[in-house]
């Protein structure tokens, strides 16, 4: 029997996976349930999953959600072990290493044999579980989210098989993702990937994205008659308001999240090091950051107290952000126009000043320009970086970085927008 209040979500990332990608649909499922929906989630069994980071505390957020976990067959753990000697350390996150012949060969292998991506081995298991769930529960609404974009191929099959309403959620670009250029892809591989992407774009009932502007323009060029809905990642308003603001004696500079060599992180750290004779600076870093990068930072920040906390839970990350006097952000090179991270919206919700390194005219740059004490500055413009840092340091603990209508970026309010999209289909 058809049930219009049931929705099936297929997502590879789910607690206890950590990182920003998992939080989008974790929160959507939680808040959809509060709005009267009955979400069902199909994901991968964490014992077999290729998760680069873990956050077991997130499990508490989704205790009441019906979750079905499946097996998977995928080469990423073996790929990681082959590349780094660790089953998790070499799982790709935001960059492609090409330092030597071995790594270049690994990039070629990844780009030409893992199409659309190396997690496609989950598809057959996810499809079987989705078929059972659709038939048993009478579900007519299905959402797939990527990366991994291979998950959308399950939605494509379910649409053809059951005639369900299906939305494909693009958290990041697919064929246009910035690191594809480093994968030595053959023309055959590029055409195959583009073909899958176009089939998904043309056959889904709607496309959800995290950012509008350039990303939607690129996608719309591939599916001109498609409907696109921008649902940003947002922030947890309850967690943000319940986390107290802590002021330290030192000038506390904070960075949280993924950090790799595809980001210009040394430029502002060198500037901070130059002004360390004026201010007692502590630089706190937390996230998935290699020991090599931490060493580079320490060599640059010789006059700064540097504290690397490793990967911490989402709650601990918010606490760290709110103890900062200045939050640092680094845009991935090549991703300026297509992506706005959920972390940046969390940064804005803390009301702490933000210095972000990247293109001021990017989507993220335009977003930050709306805030009262946040700025996107080019990596080469060290004078502007110093001016901004001095301005923040001189007003330590006195300045509030306000963002107009920040409440509209809360996870709850963004879920209301998703609810309206799903409800519209009920009334059509």
Q: Could you explain the architecture of this structure?
A:
The chain is α/β, with parallel strands linked by helices and 428 residues long. Helices cover 39% and strands 15% of the residues. The protein has 15 helices and 13 strands. Helix 12 links the parallel strand 11 and strand 12. Helix 1 crosses helix 15, helix 5 packs across helix 6 and helix 9 crosses helix 14. The two termini are 19 Å apart. The model has no long low-confidence stretch (mean pLDDT 90).
List the helices and strands and how they pair.
Layout: E1 6-10, H1 20-34, E2 38-44, E3 66-70, H2 76-84, H3 101-113, H4 123-137, E4 141-146, H5 151-162, E5 165-170, H6 187-203, E6 206-209, H7 214-222, E7 228-230, H8 237-242, E8 251-256, H9 266-274, E9 281-286, H10 291-300, E10 305-308, H11 314-322, E11 326-330, H12 342-350, E12 354-357, H13 363-368, E13 374-377, H14 382-394, H15 411-427
List its salient traits.
Rossmann fold, 39% helix, 428 residues, globular, single chain, 7-stranded parallel sheet, alpha/beta
């Amino acid at each position: 029997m058809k049930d219009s209040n049931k929705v099936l979500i297929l997502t590879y990332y789910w607690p206890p996976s950590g990182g920003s990608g998992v939080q989008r649909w974790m929160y959507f499922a939680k808040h959809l349930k509060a709005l009267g929906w009955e979400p069902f989630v199909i994901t991968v069994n964490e014992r077999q999953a290729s998760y680069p980071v873990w956050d077991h505390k997130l499990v508490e957020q989704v205790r009441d959600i019906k979750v079905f976990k499946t097996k998977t067959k995928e080469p990423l753990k073996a790929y990681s072990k082959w590349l780094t000697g660790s089953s998790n350390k070499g799982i790709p996150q935001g960059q492609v290493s090409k330092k030597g012949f071995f790594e270049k060969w690994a990039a070629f292998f990844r780009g030409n044999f893992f199409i659309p991506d190396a997690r496609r081995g989950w598809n057959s298991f996810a499809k079987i579980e989705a078929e059972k769930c659709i038939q048993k529960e009478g579900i007519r609404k299905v959402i797939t989210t990527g990366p991994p974009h291979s998950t959308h191929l399950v939605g494509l099959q379910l649409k053809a098989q059951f005639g369900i309403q299906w939305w494909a959620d693009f958290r990041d670009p697919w064929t246009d993702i910035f690191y594809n250029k480093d994968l030595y892809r053959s023309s055959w591989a590029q055409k195959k990937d583009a073909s899958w992407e176009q089939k998904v774009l043309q056959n889904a009932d709607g496309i959800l994205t995290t950012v509008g502007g350039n990303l939607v323009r690129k996608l719309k060029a591939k599916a001109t008659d498609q409907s696109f809905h921008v649902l940003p990642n947002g922030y947890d308003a309850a967690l943000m308001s319940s986390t107290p603001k802590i002021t330290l004696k030192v000038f506390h500079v904070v960075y949280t999240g993924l950090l790799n060599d595809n980001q210009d992180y040394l430029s502002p750290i060198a500037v901070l090091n130059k002004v360390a004779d004026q201010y007692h600076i502590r630089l706190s870093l937390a996230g998935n950051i290699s020991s090599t990068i931490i060493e580079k930072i320490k060599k640059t920040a010789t006059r700064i107290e540097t504290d690397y906390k490793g990967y911490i839970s989402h709650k601990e990350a918010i606490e760290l952000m709110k103890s900062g006097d200045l939050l640092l952000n680094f845009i991935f090179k090549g991703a300026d126009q297509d992506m706005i991270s959920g972390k940046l919206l969390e940064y804005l919700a803390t009301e702490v000043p933000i210095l972000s390194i990247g293109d001021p005219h990017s989507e993220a740059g335009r977003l930050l320009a709306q805030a009262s004490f946040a700025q996107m500055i080019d990596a080469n413009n060290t004078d502007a970086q110093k001016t901004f840092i001095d301005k923040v340091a001189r007003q330590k603990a006195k300045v509030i970085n306000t963002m107009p209508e920040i409440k509209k970026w809360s996870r709850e309010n963004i879920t209301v927008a998703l609810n309206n999209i799903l409800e519209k289909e009920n009334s059509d």
